[in-house]
Design brief:
Layout (H helix, E strand, L loop, with lengths): L2 H5 L1 H12 L13 H9 L3 H17 L5 H28 L5 E4 L5 H12 L3 E5 L8 H15 L7 E4 L2 H6 L8 E3 L10
Helix pairs in contact: 4-5, 5-6
């Protein structure tokens, strides 16, 4: 996503056409039927209902009154979106039994964790690729979150980490060095 596409719908349409014409790009949503996607987004969900207690606890802890309705709507969209990603990937895996490894570029974000988890649960080795330079929040968002997950929820962490350089490799304290491989700064070029 680039900012011009977000601000200008015509530019977004042009960018989408370029991506759609690239034979190396797969839209995960294309592997889930439109009816199934609608069912996922519109069905009532136990996870949403159970979130009411969590929101109450958060409001008490933060001493603020966040709108339950706003948070529940956001949760409903996030849970549905992640369910579509998971079902799409499961469909891709089912129709391509020869997949043995998968590279997940944004593995530390929620969508990436869903992808890593889906591949891991299907016996596919995941390679989590660092997708950009490390900035101010990266140590917390990238390093600490992966270290925490690796000790509590291994199915959400990649089999190996592909990172840009030695600096990042040294930042990991809790993940074994043999799971981290330096590959340099990968860049993908899309031609019009």
């Amino acid at each position: 996503r680039n900012s011009l596409s977000l601000k200008n719908p015509f530019r977004a349409y042009q960018d989408r056409k370029v991506v759609c014409n690239n034979k190396n790009v797969v839209f995960i949503e294309n592997f889930v039927s439109k009816i199934e996607i609608l069912k996922i987004y519109f069905k009532q969900n136990n996870e949403i209902r159970n979130s009411i207690d969590l929101i109450s606890e958060l409001n008490t802890f933060l001493k603020q009154n966040y709108s339950r309705l706003l948070i529940l709507k956001k949760l409903k969209i996030e849970i549905a979106k992640n369910t579509v990603i998971k079902k799409g990937l499961e469909s891709i895996i089912k129709s391509n039994r020869n997949i043995t490894q998968a590279i997940v570029p944004v593995f530390e974000l929620v969508e990436g964790r869903i992808a890593v988890n889906t591949f891991n649960l299907n016996g596919i080795k995941t390679l989590g690729m660092q997708h950009g330079p490390i900035g101010k929040w990266s140590k917390w968002r990238f390093i600490f979150s992966m270290e925490s997950l690796s000790s509590t929820h291994r199915a959400y962490t990649p089999w190996k980490y592909l990172v840009e350089g030695n600096y990042i490799k040294k930042q990991f304290n809790e993940i074994s060095p043999d799971k981290i491989k330096i590959i340099g700064a990968p860049r993908i070029l899309i031609k019009n």
